[in-house]
Amino acid sequence: MSASLTLPWMEIAPSAVQPETRQHAKDDALAALVEQYAPTLYRVAFSVLRNAADAEDAVQEAFLRVLRHRDTLEEVRDQRVWLVRIVWNIVLDRKRRAKTRPETDDVSELARVLPATGLTAEDRAAAAEHHALVLAEVDKLPPKERQVLVLSAFEELSSVEIATILGITESSVRSRLFRARNLMADLLERPRSAR
User: Fold this and answer.
1) With CB atoms 3.0 to 4.6 Å apart as the test, which of 36, 133, 149, 195 could cross-link to 180 if both were Cys?
2) Which of 66, 73, 69, 63 lies closest to 1, judged by CA?
3) What contacts 60, CB < 8 A, 6 or more positions away?
4) What is the tens place of the pLDDT at every residue in 23-54?
5) Is the same domain home to 97 and 124?
6) Closest by CA position to 70, among listed 137, 138, 23, 107
7) Domain boundary residue, one of 67, 102, 137
C-alpha cells in the first residue's frame, strides 16, 4: 500500500483514516468473498463429502479460517485458488478422520448444484438423473484422477491452479486429467445394461 491515498483534489495519509473505516472495508471485502465464492466452495466440498450438511460445515469452517486471517487477505494473489485450497484441505482432513465416505442416491441433494432456471420439471428430472449418473461414474475413478477431474470439470480450474491446490506438478495434473477423461469416456460409453 502506498504512503498516501491520492485524490484529484487532496492527499490523505493512511494514518488519517479511522481504524473503524479500515475494519469496515475489511468486513465488506470478506462479505464479498463469501457471496462470490460460497457456491464454488460448496460444490468442491460436496463433490468430496457427498453430504450437504457436511459440505456446508466445511465451507463455514473455511470462511472462519479466512476471518481469522483477514489481515493478510490483501497479500493473496488468487483468492479463488486460495479458498478452494482451504476448503479442499478441510474436506480431506474430515475424510481422513471419518475413514468412510457417505454416499447418497438422493437426487434432491444434487439439485443444489444443477441449474434450475428455464427448465421444465421433466428436463430438471432428466438433468438430475444424468448428473447423478455422471457423479456415480466419477466415483468409480481412482482417487488421484477423481481429484483432478472434479477440480477441472466441475470447478473449471486451470491445471496451474489445480497443481497449486493439490501440491503437485502441472504435468502430473495434465497426466491425471488425461487418464481421468479416458476412463470417464470408457465408463460413460458402456451400455446401460452393463452398469
Assistant:
1) 149
2) 73
3) none
4) 666 677 778 888 888 999 999 888 888 888 99
5) no
6) 23
7) 102
Q: What is the pLDDT of residues 90-148, one digit of tens each?
A: 988 888 777 644 444 444 454 455 555 667 778 777 777 877 788 888 888 998 998 89
What percent of the chain lies above the pLDDT cut of 70? 74
CATH number of the domain residue 156 falls in: 1.10.10.10
In a domain, 111, yes or no: no
Task: Looking at the structure, tell me whether residues 154 and 191 fall in a common domain.
Answer: yes
Range of the domain at 170: 120-195
Is the domain of 124 the same as that of 191? yes
Please state, in angstroms and rounded to a whole number, the distance separating the CA atoms of residues 147 and 142: 9
Q: 5 - beta bridge partners?
A: 12
pTM of the predicted model as reported, rounded to 2 decimal places: 0.56
Residue type, 49: L
Classify 7 as helix, strand or coil.
strand
Torsion angle, alpha carbons of 28, 29, 34, 40, to 10: 150
Q: Distance between CA 17 and CA 30 in Å, rounded?
A: 19
**What amino acid occupies position 77?**
R
Q: Quick one: pLDDT at residue 103?
A: 47
Last residue of a domain, one of 102, 137, 172: 102
Residues near 46 by Cβ (< 8 Å), separated by ≥ 6?
Answer: 52, 55, 109, 112, 113
